Every structure is written in structure tokens, then in C-alpha cells.
Structure to design on (1019 residues):
């Protein structure tokens, strides 16, 4: 007879006594008898889904030991032939649906399923694999999801819900389609997952694994001190993050000390890390001259030499040049156009866009006092950004310090009063979107207005011929106003192109703003009308020229193409030399490009349908005019990303010698080389572009493609309102 | 420059000018008791106008040095160069009365004839070669970039083969590209023995072909032979490798096109090596002749 509250049973011939309510699995474990399992973990509620822990208790069928309570006088066999055969079949069945070796087995050799299969001598399952895979989810920067390797043990689901109380993971689908899902079956990176890492730590196979951040690294320097996971756990910003997860990401965060005057990062440089200021202050600035490239001379005389120089917008106002007062950078603050310098302090995080999307640094950061900072790689930054505490801290800081500048930085909102901004401060919602996430869809009801804080948003419209990109919006741009002003549905679909952060203003607050500030309403209505007009024009162009190949080459979009008639061109490069001569030796034309019929579409800006050059500009200095031509604003830092992104090589970097801060001797000045992006300006100083003028063979022509190719394509020339 | 309908005005002008000059010359010859002479009034006029045309034609080179200066469109200068340069020959023949005269004038006449013939030859090339290049070299690149592109092709081919064989040797490269890495993954099941014919073909035939663009008589330089070789190679290899064989065949085709482009480019611009120095010599000697003749 057992003592009160205990039960006595026999396991594999050994008499044991355990507290009442103990499962057979635990009873065995407490007496050093190992029963294999896949779905069961000590810190989670047993669910008995994998059935690998089956034992024979003398009943009609075998039972899962993790959920079967121990009973008095129960005789349990964990290793009988019947049990072994059942277990082996179960493992073999699981293996037949498992990519062997899975990621975990490849990386660390400790996939629990494959280890078990090995113990049971299962090398190749007799059962066929499923014909189609269940896919992978690569959307999270820190955790890789391989649905094929998932054995549906639910350990991750219980880890997320029972241990971390995040309730992000769940089951989705039935039968062969069953699987784990994040939120309502969203990609992990787009879900409300906080990247605590518990699911990954719980997973017995390679279904959820730690992503090794490849292609990124810390800058060389002996001052970088690796931070131990225990130290990180003690920092307030890492509270709530799984210790195991931090251990797995050991080395992905370093502590750096900077002396006063040290440069922490330079504008235009490529990097892959973000910085979090622990102590000290830093100055953030743009050292490139606030000016654009202007070609002087030319039209005044036959022999006038052309020169290119830098001109500020107050000296040379180009058509549609913006009056923007603030420059948006990759930091929690904006810089003033007139004096692009600001200060950062403890608790500030900067370099997020560089770290998450590998864009060039948008500004130079220098230690104002002795500083201590955490420098981190993408996976750690993602963990931090998803951490509820840290998020709350960052959002609070943004609302208090940056919202004013951000809103007023938009020219249309420059007249907002302090009182109104104060009233918005706690009402605006700060939201994050993962790459590819649709923020709002064409045809949906318009319920809010968005201001881009970080990242790039693609605005596109569906047309009979396919999707057409209307614009790429970056920090400081806004969208959603058309639907709200018209009280109608969304006119376009907006999608996050990379890691995007937005300020969401509800429709109610937006309408309050419009009612309270009629002048802003007027400006917004003008913008609305302008955007709609552009869309109409573009639509008419798309509908007029349905030829696929023509469209595919982006020729239709161009207003002014430089064409080289290859039947006449002797490849003498006189056009290229003329272009270089007209622009201080820096040619903006390369005699290479796409061919259409016997024409070469030489590399000069063609105002594309999908202007990829605008994606990634760290300071948002490249944009379209209403005429679709590209304009590069004064605050270009010469990083060259637009030149790299342009698929046609139509953007070039023009070097200029300017007097600037000596990077090696703070406070001193010296001549330094700065670069500014330029694209073909059609030699506006002249009646005819130099390349065309200098072609001796009548091969170079600047043409309006819709007219020039009209005969060839058998269509009527396109008529548009503004062209 | 392509001689097309846009040259009609220049053609008419040239024909009218030539007709008028011929008529004047015939009139002058019939009236001259001692026959035509360069030192007569008519002879001097023909000589001066012909030399002026030559100078104008020669100034095209100078015009090209200052492409941005607004001195008239370069194509107008080129048209003038072609037609006036051509007219200078009959004018100078009229000037000399179809006689070559002494040593200097004989040299001048020979120079002029060679310059005009080389110019006409160049014009013919510029008329026919560009469209031929357009149709025969669809993968044309910038001439100065040809060697660089060749280097890339070789690297790419190495990577493709390395991706399949992955066995080191002379083809082993430190970094295998992503494309090759993917290929390696896909071709994991293919053994070294299976792909031995490919490796052998690459090392013996294709790589030398890509490495030595100036070599002549290589089988792969001939499109038909190359096609046959690759078809034959494909029959020796497992189907998993066929896509790579196709890629390698494409690389050979691009190399052939680059060779063709280089050759055509040399033809298109090679004649200038003769035309330009002789033109300069002609102008210089012509000036000396004019000064000497007028002074003495």
C-alpha cells in the first residue's frame, strides 16, 4: 500500500514511488529511466502529440507516457519489443517528412529527431517524402523558419504562449496542410513576434533556427569589446530577451569607447551595424556642401568653356526644387538645411537603416564627449526593436523629440502650431512594417494618414497591363491623404520595400487638422490634384502603347531618350567625349545600353516607370519632378547608391574639391574631395545637348520616344496634357 | 557617315559645282594658247579653291577637338568634309591641267589621290560597316572594354566548370560564385567521372580559346564547328550538366562576337591611320607649294 499522496508502480522491472499526479514519463525520469520524446519539455504542458514516448502499461494499446498519470501497481515497460517497434515506426514516419540533414543537424548536429532516428538505426525511411515542400520563411532577420523540418510537436507554440505569454504562434491548417503559423499566418518578420527566441530554443529540429548574420561585420578596431550575454541581460534594453537567444548571438554586439572628437561613422560609407549610446554625447552632421551641380558658361559665346560648379538653392533655384527645411537622416532627429548639425545622447539609437537594409550612412557622427556605445549587428538590432520595453522607450523619445521636426519638415505641414502637435503627440501610432508588407491596398477604405519615419515605401497602382510604380517614398514623405480628403477608398497600394517605420495619424485626427488649418488643407488638396493628374497621364500613356517589349525596356516611360542609330554610328565616341567636355571631364553618357530595333538607347536618364535610383538614398535627396525627370537635391552626400541602383548607369558622381573639416584634425579645415550625384541635364545651357551636337555621323538624337517610334510601332503619337 | 537621302543637297551642290568647274576648265583650255597652266588666272583660281576645300576638310579634325564649342553641328562639318574633300580632287586636277609637274607637285598629286581614295574607302566602310556590326554583333560592348569583358567571360566559365567538377586543379578558384554554388548544390549527385569529358574539353579546347583571343584557326572560333562540338559533348554528359554546357556554349558565342567586333572595329577605324597623316602631309606640303609658287 502506498503512502498518502504517493503512487507505487513498476517501470522496466524496477519498483518506484512517485507523488500522485506524476506522469509515467516523469516517474521514469525521476528514477533515471530515460524515455525518448520529441514534443515534451519539462517547462511546458505535456500534449502527447508526437507519441514517441509511448510505453506499454498492459492496456489494449500503447500509451503516451508524458500525459499518462502514474497509477498504483501499474507495470510499465519502456523497452519491450512492441514499444520499440511502435517507436521506431513513429520515428521513421516523422523522418519521411523531414529534410535530412536539416539546418540544425548541419549546423550543430543536435536535431533531436535525427539523433533518435540514428539511435533506432533508421537511415533512409521506407516511406516516400511528400511531393511538394511546405516552404521556408526568411522574413525574420534573426530566426529562420523551415516548415519542412517542422514535426508539429507544438513546443514552439507552448514556449511562445505558456513561457513568454506572447501568443504569436499557433496551429494553422488541417491534415497534411497543418503547420505552425505566426499571428494570422503572416510571415514571421511581419508578425507581432517580439523575437524573444523562445520558439527557437524550444524547437527540437531545424524548423526554427538562429540565423547567422552573413555579409555583415564590425569595423576593424582593437577598441571593440565583446559583451557577454549575461551583461546584456542586465541592460534595461535587453530585458525580456531570452538568455539562450543572446548566447546564440554571442559576438553580435560589442561595446565601443570613443574619445571626444573621434568619428563614429562617416556619411556615405557602407556599414552593417547600428549604435546605441550608453554614455556620452555625439554630434551628428552632414559635411557635404549643401549645393547641387550646375553647369556654367556655354550659350554666351562660341568659344565659352563649360564648367561645372556647386550652387546653393538660394543662388540657383531649379524648377520644382523643394523648400524643405529639414533633412531626414538615419537617426532619431532631423538636420536643419541651413545648419545640418544635431546632437545625440544616452538612449539614442542610430544607424538603423544602415544596419537593417545595408544602406550607406546618412550622416557623420562624431563623439562630442567621451562616449560608450553598443555596436550591434542586424539580428540583435531586430531583437531590440521588437523588445516591448525598448520599443516603448524609443517611441517615447521620438514623440518627445522628433515628432515636431518630422511633421514640420514636411513643407505642407510647416505651419502646424505647437498646441496641435502636442495634441497629436500621444495619439499618433508608431508602426513597423517588414519588407514586402502591404501597408494599405488599392480599393480599401481610407482610414488613416501615414508619414514615413524610416525606410522606403513603394506606391503602385494596378492597371490592365500590370502593376505600375507611381513613386518611392522615403523618410519625410507621406501617403494616404487622397483617400481621406475625398472620403473615398485608397487609390494605390503602398508596400514596405525594406524595414519601414511609419507614423500613423488616424483619419479623425487628420480631418481635425484639415479643419483647423485651412491653409494646410488647401496645400494638401493641391498635392492631391497634382498626384491624381500625374496618375491619369501615366495611365493614358500605358493604355496608348501596349507593346510589351517596348514597355519592358522602359522606353515608353521616357520623355526624352538619347538614341544612337546603330546603322549610322561608327562607334567613334565623339558623343561621350563631348559629354565629358561639357561636364568637367565627367561624362554622364555611356555608349552602352538597351537596343530597340536598330537603335541603342544610350545611358542617359530616361525617367523610368520604376525609378529604382530613388530607393535607398539615405538622406532622401533624389526625387522626381512632376515632369518625371530626376532632381538631386542639395543635401546629396555623394554616397553613390543611386548610381549603383540605376539599372541603366545613368547617374554619375561628380567630384569637387571643397574646403571642409579635416577628418584627422577636428576644428581644422582643409581641401577635401566631395562627390555629388548628377544625371544628364540635357545641356540646358545650350539649345541642343552636346552629345547630339558633336556627333559627326548624324547618329545621335534626343527624341520623344512616343513620337519617334510611333511609325515603327504603328501607333498614334501619345498625347499627354503636360508633355 | 552613312550616305543617304539627307545628302541630296550636298550631292546636287557638288554636281553643279563640278559641272560649272568642268565647263570653266574646258572654256579655259580652249582659250589658252599654251595649254592649261597652274600659274594662269584660271589655274590659280582652281588651285586656291581646291586648297581651300582641302583646308576645310582638314579642319574637321580640329573641330572634333572642341566638341562643345558651338561652331556648327559636327555632322554639318562632316558632310562638308566629305563632299568638299571629294571636290578638291577635280579642282586640283584642273589646276594642274591633268599634269603632275615636278617632284613636289607630283608628290602632292599622289598624296591627294591617296587621301581622296582612302577617304572614299573610309566613307564606304562607314556606310556599310555599322549596320553589319549591328546585325552581326548583337552582344556588342564598348571597344575599350573588350578585354575586360573577356576576362569576365573566362572567370564565369571557370566558375561554371568549377561548380560542376569542384575538384580543384588548375581551375580551382578561391571564391566560387553564387551561381556556381547553386549549380554545385543542384549537381551534387553528378560524380567526377560523369563530368570528366566536360573538364577535358574545357581544359584542352575552350579555356585556350578564351585565354588567347588573338589565336587563329581555333575550332571554337567557327560557329558551326563550335555548335557541333558542344552537341557532341552534350551526348557524353548526364542531363543534369546540359544546362551548364549550354551556358559554356553561350560564352563561346559571346567570345566569337567580341572577336568579330574587334575585327570590324579595326576595319572601321583602321583606314584613318593612313588617311589622317597623309592629309596632314598634304596640307603642309600644299601650303609650302602655294607659298613657293606665289612667291617665285
Amino acid at each position: 500500500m502506498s503512502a498518502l499522496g504517493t503512487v507505487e508502480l513498476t517501470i522496466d522491472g524496477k519498483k518506484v514511488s512517485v507523488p500522485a499526479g506524476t506522469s509515467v514519463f516523469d516517474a521514469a525520469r525521476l528514477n533515471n529511466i530515460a524515455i525518448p520524446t520529441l514534443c515534451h519539455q519539462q517547462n511546458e504542458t505535456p500534449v502527447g502529440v508526437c507519441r514517441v514516448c509511448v510505453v506499454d502499461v498492459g492496456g489494449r494499446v500503447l500509451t503516451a507516457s508524458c500525459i499518462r498519470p502514474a497509477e498504483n501497481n501499474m507495470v510499465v515497460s519502456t523497452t519491450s519489443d512492441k514499444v520499440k517497434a511502435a517507436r521506431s515506426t513513429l520515428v521513421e514516419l516523422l523522418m519521411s517528412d523531414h529534410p535530412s540533414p536539416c539546418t540544425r543537424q548541419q549546423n550543430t548536429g543536435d536535431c533531436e529527431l535525427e539523433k533518435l532516428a540514428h539511435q533506432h538505426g533508421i537511415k533512409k525511411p521506407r516511406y516516400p517524402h511528400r511531393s511538394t515542400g511546405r516552404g521556408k520563411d526568411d522574413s525574420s532577420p534573426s530566426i529562420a523558419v523551415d516548415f519542412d523540418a517542422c514535426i508539429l510537436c507544438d513546443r514552439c507554440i507552448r514556449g511562445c504562449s505558456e513561457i513568454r505569454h506572447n501568443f504569436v504562434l499557433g496551429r494553422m491548417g488541417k491534415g497534411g496542410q497543418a503547420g505552425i503559423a505566426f499571428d494570422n499566418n503572416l510571415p514571421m518578420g511581419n508578425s507581432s513576434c517580439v523575437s524573444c527566441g523562445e520558439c527557437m530554443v524550444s524547437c527540437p529540429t531545424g524548423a526554427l533556427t538562429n540565423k547567422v548574420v552573413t555579409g555583415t561585420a564590425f569595423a576593424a578596431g582593437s577598441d571593440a569589446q565583446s559583451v557577454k550575454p549575461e551583461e546584456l541581460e542586465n541592460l534595461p534594453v535587453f530585458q525580456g530577451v531570452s538568455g539562450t537567444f543572446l548566447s546564440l548571438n554571442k559576438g553580435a554586439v560589442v561595446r565601443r569607447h570613443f574619445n571626444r572628437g573621434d568619428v563614429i561613422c562617416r556619411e556615405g560609407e557602407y556599414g552593417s551595424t547600428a549604435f546605441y549610446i550608453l554614455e556620452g554625447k555625439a554630434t551628428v552632421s552632414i559635411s557635404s556642401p549643401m549645393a547641387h551641380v550646375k553647369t556654367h558658361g556655354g550659350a554666351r559665346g562660341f568659344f565659352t568653356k563649360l564648367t561645372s560648379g556647386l550652387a546653393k538653392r538660394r543662388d540657383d533655384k531649379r524648377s520644382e526644387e523643394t523648400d524643405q527645411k529639414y533633412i531626414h537622416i538615419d537617426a532619431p532627429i532631423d538636420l536643419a538645411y541651413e545648419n545640418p548639425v544635431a546632437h545625440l545622447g544616452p538612449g539614442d539609437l542610430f544607424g538603423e537603416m544602415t544596419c537593417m537594409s545595408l544602406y550607406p550612412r546618412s550622416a557623420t557622427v562624431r563623439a562630442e564627449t567621451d562616449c560608450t556605445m553598443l555596436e550591434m549587428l542586424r539580428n540583435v538590432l531586430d531583437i531590440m526593436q521588437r523588445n516591448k520595453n525598448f520599443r516603448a522607450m524609443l517611441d517615447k523619445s521620438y514623440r518627445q523629440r522628433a515628432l515636431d521636426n518630422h511633421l514640420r519638415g514636411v513643407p505642407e505641414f510647416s505651419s502646424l502650431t505647437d498646441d496641435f502637435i502636442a495634441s497629436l503627440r500621444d495619439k499618433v501610432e508608431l508602426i513597423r512594417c517588414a519588407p514586402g508588407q502591404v501597408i494599405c491596398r488599392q480599393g480599401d477604405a481610407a482610414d488613416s494618414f501615414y508619414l514615413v519615419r524610416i525606410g522606403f515605401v513603394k506606391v503602385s497602382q494596378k492597371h490592365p497591363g500590370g502593376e505600375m510604380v507611381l513613386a518611392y517614398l522615403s523618410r519625410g514623405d507621406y501617403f494616404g491623404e487622397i483617400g481621406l480628403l475625398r472620403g473615398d477608398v485608397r487609390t494605390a497600394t503602398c508596400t514596405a520595400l525594406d524595414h519601414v517605420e511609419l507614423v500613423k495619424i488616424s483619419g479623425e485626427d487628420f480631418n481635425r487638422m484639415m479643419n483647423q488649418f485651412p491653409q494646410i488643407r488647401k496645400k494638401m488638396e493641391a498635392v492631391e490634384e497634382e498626384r491624381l493628374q500625374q496618375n491619369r497621364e501615366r495611365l493614358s500613356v500605358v493604355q496608348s502603347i501596349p507593346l510589351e517589349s517596348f514597355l519592358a525596356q522602359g522606353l515608353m516611360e521616357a520623355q526624352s531618350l538619347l538614341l544612337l542609330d546603330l546603322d549610322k554610328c561608327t562607334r567613334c565616341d565623339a558623343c561621350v567625349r563631348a559629354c565629358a567636355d561639357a561636364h568637367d571631364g565627367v561624362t554622364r553618357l555611356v555608349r552602352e545600353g538597351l537596343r530597340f530595333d536598330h537603335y541603342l538607347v544610350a545611358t542617359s536618364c530616361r525617367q523610368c516607370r520604376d525609378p529604382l535610383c530613388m530607393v535607398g538614398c539615405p538622406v532622401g535627396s533624389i526625387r522626381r519632378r512632376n515632369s518625371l525627370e530626376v532632381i538631386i537635391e542639395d543635401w546629396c552626400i555623394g554616397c553613390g547608391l543611386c548610381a549603383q541602383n540605376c539599372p541603366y548607369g545613368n547617374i554619375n558622381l561628380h567630384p569637387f574639391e571643397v574646403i571642409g573639416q579635416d577628418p584627422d584634425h577636428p576644428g581644422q579645415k582643409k581641401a577635401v574631395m566631395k562627390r555629388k550625384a548628377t544625371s544628364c541635364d540635357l545641356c540646358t545651357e545650350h539649345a541642343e545637348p552636346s552629345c547630339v551636337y558633336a556627333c559627326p555621323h548624324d547618329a545621335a538624337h534626343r527624341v520623344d520616344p512616343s513620337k519617334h517610334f510611333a511609325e515603327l510601332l504603328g501607333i498614334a503619337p501619345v498625347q499627354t496634357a503636360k508633355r | 557617315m552613312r550616305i543617304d537621302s539627307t545628302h541630296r543637297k550636298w550631292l546636287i551642290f557638288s554636281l553643279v559645282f563640278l559641272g560649272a568647274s568642268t565647263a570653266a576648265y574646258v572654256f579655259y583650255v580652249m582659250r589658252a594658247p599654251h595649254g592649261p597652266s597652274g600659274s594662269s588666272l584660271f589655274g590659280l583660281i582652281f588651285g586656291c579653291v581646291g586648297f581651300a576645300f582641302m583646308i576645310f576638310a582638314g579642319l574637321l579634325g580640329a573641330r572634333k577637338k572642341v566638341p562643345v564649342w558651338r561652331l556648327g553641328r559636327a555632322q554639318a562639318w562632316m558632310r562638308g568634309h566629305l563632299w568638299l574633300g571629294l571636290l578638291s580632287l577635280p579642282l586640283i586636277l584642273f589646276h594642274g591641267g591633268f599634269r603632275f609637274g615636278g617632284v613636289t607637285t607630283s608628290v602632292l598629286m599622289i598624296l591627294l589621290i591617296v587621301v581622296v581614295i582612302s577617304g572614299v574607302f573610309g566613307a564606304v566602310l562607314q556606310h556599310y560597316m555599322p549596320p553589319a556590326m549591328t546585325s552581326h554583333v548583337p552582344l556588342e560592348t564598348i571597344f575599350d572594354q573588350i578585354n575586360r569583358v573577356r576576362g569576365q567571360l573566362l572567370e564565369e566559365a571557370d566558375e561554371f566548370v568549377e561548380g560542376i567538377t569542384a575538384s580543384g586543379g588548375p581551375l580551382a578558384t578561391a571564391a566560387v560564385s553564387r551561381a556556381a554554388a547553386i549549380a554545385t548544390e543542384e549537381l551534387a549527385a553528378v560524380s567526377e567521372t560523369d563530368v570528366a569529358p566536360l573538364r577535358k574539353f574545357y581544359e584542352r579546347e575552350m579555356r585556350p580559346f578564351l585565354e588567347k583571343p588573338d589565336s587563329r584557326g581555333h575550332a571554337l572560333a567557327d560557329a558551326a564547328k563550335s555548335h557541333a562540338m558542344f552537341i557532341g559533348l552534350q551526348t557524353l554528359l548526364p542531363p543534369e550538366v546540359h544546362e551548364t554546357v549550354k551556358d559554356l556554349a553561350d560564352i563561346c558565342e559571346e567570345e566569337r562576337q567580341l572577336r568579330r567586333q574587334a575585327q570590324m572595329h579595326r576595319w572601321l577605324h583602321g583606314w584613318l591611320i593612313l588617311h589622317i597623316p597623309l592629309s596632314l602631309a598634304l596640307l603642309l606640303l600644299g601650303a609650302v607649294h602655294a607659298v613657293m609658287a606665289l612667291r617665285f
In short: The interface with chain A takes residues 1-2, 6, 60, 64, 66-71, 73-75, 77-78, 126, 129-131, 133-134, 138, 141-143, 265, 268-269 of chain B (CB under 8 Å). Residues 143-268 of chain B form one domain. The two ends of chain B are 41 Å apart (CA to CA).
